[in-house]
Amino acid sequence: MNDFKQDFSASLKFIPKILVVVLVISLFSSYIFQFSLSIIILPAFLSLITAFVSVYFIIQRKRLELEKIREVIQKIRTNAFTSADEISLSKDLVKLEEEIKSMFLKTKEDIANLKKIEKYRTEFLGNVSHELRTPIFAIQGYIETLLDGALEDKNVNRNFLEKANRHTQNLNSLLNDLIDISMIESGQMLFSYRYFNAWEFLEGIVNELKPHAEKKNLDLILLQFDKTLQLLGDKQRLKQAMTNLIVNAIKYTETGKVEVGIEEEEQFGSVFVNDTGIGISVSDLNRIFERFYRVDKDRSRELGGTGLGLAIVKHIVEAHGSKIEVKSQVGKGSNFSFKLKK
Ligand SMILES: Nc1ncnc2c1ncn2[C@@H]1O[C@H](COP(=O)(O)OP(=O)(O)O)[C@@H](O)[C@H]1O
Ligand SMILES: [Mg+2]
Hints:
Strand content: 5-15%
Bound molecules: adenosine-5'-diphosphate, magnesium ion
Low-confidence stretches: none
Strand order of the largest sheet: 2-4-5-7-6
Number of helices: 10
Mean pLDDT: 91
Structural class: alpha+beta
Radius of gyration: 38 Å
Helix content: 55-70%
C-alpha cells in the first residue's frame, strides 16, 4: 500500500507537465483546424488520464527494477550467490545484468587469488622455518656435545667441528637461495640482457666445477659447438642457473658422466645438461621445480641442497622468455635444457 502511495505521488508530480502538453496540443489543433475548444475537451481529458496511468505504471516498474537491483547487490555483498547464473534482472536490463555478472565473477576470482597467495605465503613461511631449524639444531647439538666434554676427546672433536661447519655452510646456502628467490619473486632482481660468447661462458663454468666432478670420479665434459656462437641473456644470472643444473647433475649421479653443450637451431641455441645419474620418476618430474621439493629430502640435505635450486633456475629461464625442459628416466639419467635467442 505504501508503494502504491509512493508511486501515485511520484506520478502526480508529472500532472503539470502532462497538462501543459495536452493544453498546447489542444490549442494548437483548434487554431489549425478551426474548431471550438469544447469539442476537444473530452478527448483531452481522456488523454490526460491515459498519460497519468502510463506514467504511474512506468514509475512502478522502474521502482520494482531498482528494488531488484538493490536485492541482487545485497545478495552479492552477503555472499548469497554461489554462481553468476543465479543473478537475473528483468529482460530490459540485459546489459546491466551482464555487467553485474562479470563484476561478481571478477570479485570471486580476486578473492580466490588472495586466498591462494595467503596459503602460499603461510606454506612458504612454514617451509622456511623448518629448513632453518634443521641446520641450527644440528649445529647446536654438536656445540653442546663438544662443550659437555667431547672437546677433549681427540677421536670425535675434529669430526664434530667439521660437521657443525658443514651445517653452517648449508645454512649460508639456504639464506642465499632465499634472498635470491624473494628478490626474483618480488621483481627486485634486475636482469640485463646482452649478447655474449656462449663457448667462453660455458667453458668458464665447466672449468670451475670440474674439481667437484673429479671428487666423485665423474667426467664433466663440454661438448663441441660453434665457438663463435653468440647468445642473448643475462650472463651473471645464467651462470647461476647453469651452476645449479650442473651441480645437481653431479650430485645426483654416481657413475658415468655429465655433458654440457648447446644444440644450435635456426633462431635459438638450446643449452643442455645431461647426466647418467639416478634419474627422476614421472610423478616427481612435475614437482621438482617447486620450492623446497626434493625427491629424497635427507639425501639432498646430506649433499648440501636447499631444495630451492631448480625453483631459481625456472625463474631465471622464464625471465629470458624461455622454458626449462626436463626429460628423465629412473636409473638412466636426466636431461635439462632451455633455449636462448641467437
Ligand atoms: N640431475 C638430477 N638428477 C636427479 N634428480 C634431480 C636432478 N636435479 C634435480 N633433481 C631432483 O630435484 C630436486 C630439486 O632440485 P633442487 O631444487 O636443485 O634442490 P636440491 O637443493 O635438493 O638440489 C632434488 O632434490 C632432486 O631430488
Ligand atoms: Mg640443487
